[in-house]
Predict the 3D structure of the following.
Amino acid sequence: MDALEILFTASFWVAAIRIASPLIFATMGELICERAGVLNLGIEGIMTAGAFAGWFTVYSGGDLWAGVLVAAIVGAMFGLLHATLTVPLGLSQHVVGIGITLLATSLTYFTYRLALPEVTSPPKIEPFQPLPIPGLSSLPVIGEALFSQTPLTYLALVSVAAVAWILYRTPIGLAVRAVGENPSAVEAQGISVTGIRTGAVAIGSALMAVGGAFLTTSAFNSFFFQMINGRGWICIALVVFGSWRPGKALIGAILFAAFDAYQVRLQQISGGIVPYQVFLMMPYALSILALILVARRATYPKALMIPYQKGER
């Protein structure tokens, strides 16, 4: 198969949308946090904790949706910890975020070893199965790519529309955007900046954890160490790439996933002539290039990473 022909196959786009799904969840979560003025560098650890929580819930006898719910709750708890340290206490968002990543990752590995001390290979669960949408799934290429996915992929796409609608069409979304731009103006209206930012970080972190749970309950069927593999950091870059807008961030997530799916197929047709590390590098190199080109024109929230104390002007 020619390298160009790959781009027009249904299997390629099925893989791209599947790879993009956890990125979409986590990117929407990070976008909510940053729109409220809080940079959440705990995303990598929160996704890891969500991946384990979702998988372990199902492995322990819960159903798949219960696993997703537990993952979201675990993510929200880490988000509340992050928000408590950075919002009312005003601690460094960079340091706290990295600390949350280390804490969540370490607790996950510790819990895994504590719960399954004798396990040498990751136990498997029955993951979400593809759920074709009648009529739409039979469309050429796009039908299989978009309408023959698992329920969590559909939920990821819905989450983009939901986040966009909430941010731009509801009073609470206006408040979230306002505390990321001018928190003193929000306080002047009698609205709690601390409350809005804390809620945004908790909800955003819950979405990040669901992104992690996607990997163990939909993309794969088990939990293994290092499965997040830098996806959290990519999501932070996707927020910047998308100029803090849900629709553009969605496009960025799909583009990165397409690069990732493409490099796998290029490896197969290259015949080993080119070292596989070159192909593995491609999605990240192209993402960095796209980020450099877009970031120059991006307008970031004015109060991002700036602590706010009540009464300040």
Remarks:
- The radius of gyration is 20 Å.
- The mean pLDDT is 90.
- The first helix runs from residue 10 to 35.
